[in-house]
Amino acid sequence: QVQLVESGGGLVQAGGSLRLSCTASGRASRPYIMGWFRQAPGKEREFVAAISRSGTKTYYADALKDRFTISRDNAKTTVYLHMNSLKPEDTAVYYCAEDSSDYRDLTVRADEYDYWGQGTQVTVSS
């Protein structure tokens, strides 16, 4: 069983930055596609970014690609989400997720991710 644990959330002023981390544990594994999603109060969960197994390929939600960067350190089984120029509308619970398929390319669909973390709250004040 895979466990994903997010950290790094918190309260930040508009214009500030945060780095979220997601560490995988629970089984000896090779890297899998990882994604970040977020869910604001009263809204559906939305795709933020995804990264390939090697980290050489990434994909972003169009509205976020200029401010957010996804990366990974496979030696640490950790995926990061660097968030810059944060806005109040970025306030949400941020989740990391793992796609355990061996054949799928990067996907934005939440239902194609197999494991999810508990989430970390990001609050951006104006």
Spans with pLDDT under 50 lasting ≥5 residues? Answer: none
Helix content: under 10%
Kindly report the oligomeric state of this protein: single chain
Shape by Cα distribution: globular
Task: Characterise the protein shown here.
- This protein has 126 residues and is mostly beta strands.
- Helix content is 0%, strand content 48%.
- The chain has no helices and 11 strands.
- Strands 2, 4, 5, 6, 9, 10 and 11 form a 7-stranded mixed β-sheet that branches. A 4-stranded antiparallel β-sheet has the order 1-3-8-7, with no helix packed on it.
- A hairpin with a 4-residue loop joins strand 7 (68-73) and strand 8 (78-83).
What attributes characterize this protein structure?
single chain; 126 residues; mainly beta; 4-stranded antiparallel sheet; 0% helix; globular
